[in-house]
């Protein structure tokens, strides 16, 4: 990937993002770099808090696809923002369960207090507000997250206003169950698949009472599942290593080669809804069964013919 | 609050949730002291085929909603085909009401990592991916840390524990699309595309990720594997029922005194779970509930003794789903709730299939009209007709899921709809929300 030529639009970004982007690409099998697009889009949001035209160009250049293809993906997913965001993204769950437990009042209260609507940002650039769909914490309903970390559980209009006032003052209150608050751009870096660089942040947050309710009840009453013996033998019908290494490590993948034809422009590799793709793919596979032809060189020669 | 009776307490089966009580179990050292990575050593000492048989014998069924037998799914992967195999873990928890996978990954991430290594060995995959919901940032933080620790300890990477088995495991964050919880949409998303479902067949076991044989399993399914490897199939089957074996994490939310996660053998009833959860909140009478998320047909107070296993819930006309039990009372309106869910399905429909894309758009508008006090009797027929035309006519289950609350509330709670239409119930939405609806 060292030889990517960046377009003028992407060049300034590339100076800063090429190194982490290269690291992201390396996570996926050779020939399957397009898998990196979601993390790359998270990565470009570390720059300005949204997917800028330069960010789209950067992703397109590094993956060798066009900007429309990147744009089609970027606009599909809610977490890729299309306009500038604040330092903190405050999300209120207003899906049914949180909604009836008071989430709608919490959201309405915040919108009124901040004077902004859904996906809008305060004039000081601190807070972007959104109403979110189910955040998978219904036992704490209604919930409010800051940059996606669970910050206020069983929220009320008052506790939510207190939270945003504190953020507006430049403070970073301690979240209920997430890690200590960072900026949305710093969070985008983590979403791109990188470790939280802050010492100790991974250990932040303790499980709340609802999470532990059942297991605590069991502990209090001395209940455990009987007859657990970790030495229970597994029935063996053949030796463990009989041909195991060969079978386990696919030679093609070991050599860093994608056995199947890479995805085309329009469709993912596995999408067979286009008849012609499945035909060409099968033809390619048949050719590859020829011994020795699964190396990159072999495949290339075949294409040259 | 009255204490649950001893015979109900005995239904608790702390297995997957047990380590959550140890605040530092997310660290590898603590995890190892609590039986961690013992199952991996044991598993790598037997042939992969014997592991698949063990999982078949255990009766483990998928914990993501469909309940497909896990061992059977693993057995579908063709062996010796010369293609790379992949394990993809569906950690895109987002079904409304569901909140069991996030705590598991946050408080016991290594159990998922260990399960992933064992499952990969069994299906002979040398690459595995955990596709975690983007918003689940703290769970992802812990999970990435666990993967890093597992590499450092030699449980991941090349020649794991000297067995010659190699595995690369990548934690891949999504970006906020409910549809990516559907397995083929997840695969498209993981390949770097819009998350839209694929037509099946071919199934992922034949042409999944990168058109290669792929197992897609839920977090709870994979995290169960180390326990089965350690305790054996018979021990696993000592929990749950004959056809629905093992423990399940039931997520209770809504109008109960103590909402939360309750791990019990499959087949427990709502009545018993309510007893564990301290009952309904004062002043609230059980009116309706979802057995497994909003995509499963709603049940009512008369289903309180339904066995919460795959067969029992199916017999009651619903689906066990993710055992996300959202409990609503006489103070909640099934019409309003269904509208709110439909706004969700409308927002999350990927747009690929016309019935789902257009049907949800129009059903949302019909609901808004009813809730604004301007509905007509004909609207109820329109809703039923639209839902019937979505159900079974989309590539994936999202369309079915959207039709489900509509059909089930029309069936159980027609009077509540008529209340708005006949002016007996005060409108819940203002006319402002109707702009463009007529």
Overall geometric form of chain B: globular
Radius of gyration of chain B: 22 Å
User: How far apart lie the N and C ends of chain B?
Assistant: 50 Å
Biggest β-sheet: strands ordered side by side in the sheet of chain B? 6-5-9-7-8
The name CATH uses for the topology of the domain at 88-185 in chain A is Glutaredoxin
Helix share bin of chain B? 40-55%
Unreliable stretches covering 5 or more consecutive residues of chain A: 244-249, 272-305
**Structural class designation of chain A:** alpha+beta
- Tell how many strands the DSSP assignment of chain A holds: 5
Quaternary status: heterodimer
CATH topology heading of the domain at 35-237 in chain B: Rossmann fold
The value of Rg of chain A in angstroms is 25 Å
Gap between N and C termini of chain A, in Å? 26 Å
- The assigned structural class of chain B equals alpha/beta
Largest sheet of chain B: 5 strands, mixed
* CATH class (first level) name of the domain at 35-237 in chain B: Alpha Beta
β-strand number of chain B: 9
SSE run of chain A:
HHHHEHEEEEHHHHHHH
Q: Based on the coordinates given, report the CATH architecture of the domain at 88-185 in chain A.
A: 3-Layer(aba) Sandwich
Q: Helix coverage percent of residues of chain A? A: 40-55%
